[in-house]
Amino acid sequence: MCCCKEPTINGQPGYSWDGRSTMVYQPTPPELEDGDVLLADEPGRCGRGIDSHCYHFRLVENRGQCFLVVKHGAGTERIRFGWTKTVGDFATTPSADRYWVFQAAYHAVSEARQTAAREVEDRWRRAAAEKRIKTRKLPGQDAVRVTLLPALVA
Predict the structure, then answer these.
(1) How does the average pLDDT of the chain come out, rounded?
(2) Which helix (H) or strand (E) covers residue 127, if one does?
(3) Collapsing DSSP states into helix, strand and coil, what is residue 41?
(4) How far is 37 from 49, CA to CA, in rounded Å?
(5) Distance CA 66, CA 87 (A)
(6) Which of 16, 59, 111, 151 is 20 to 30 A from 104, comparing alpha carbons?
(7) Element (H, E) at 59
């Protein structure tokens, strides 16, 4: 939990984890891939009542597309953020606003992924319980076709 007295950006003095001592929380940016052009670099921070020191965002362009690359405690994720022409010029957006937009976009995508995974798991679980999963070995191949049969309407 963050105990900074004032909003603090990683790499700047003022970070406090205990409310008594202050230090510098070192930024941990995600690595760039071949062909990445860095458009924005936003280290973790706190503010607006949110402790977000563990997230470091980078907006990169690669082959005409933009990606939001985030490094956090569980690793690094790369999210397609749109075409370069649709993203606009983030260079003129204030850093704090840009960071919180990245934070909101990341969490929206993360929540959507989790919801989709739960829905797929539930669908397959129901199909297994109702014995609606059909498997068939493909002749001459080391492969199996798996089919989910439709549910019976009562």
Answers:
(1) 92
(2) helix 95-129
(3) strand
(4) 32
(5) 7
(6) 16
(7) strand 56-62
* Token pair recorded at residue 77: 């994720």
From start to end of 4-52, where are the E strands?
13-15, 23-24, 37-42, 45-47, 50-52
- What is the rounded (10 degree) CA torsion for 8, 13, 15, 21? -150
Three-class DSSP labels, 63-112: CCEEEEEEEECCEEEEEEEEEHHHHCCHHHCCHHHHHHHHHHHHHHHHHH
* Contact assessment for residue 124 and residue 108, using Cβ atoms and an 8 Å cutoff: no
Question: What burial class does residue 109 get, using C-beta atoms within 10 Å of its C-beta: 0-12 exposed, 13-18 middle, 19+ buried?
Answer: middle
Residues 46, 123: Cα–Cα separation, whole Å: 39
**What pTM did the predictor assign?**
0.83
CA distance 78 to 59: 10
Compute how many other C-beta atoms are within 10 angstroms of the C-beta atom of residue 56: 24
Instruction: Tell me which H or E stretch contains 116.
Output: helix 95-129
pLDDT digits (tens, 9 = 90+) for 63-121: 989 999 999 999 999 999 887 777 777 777 899 999 999 999 999 999 999 999 999 99
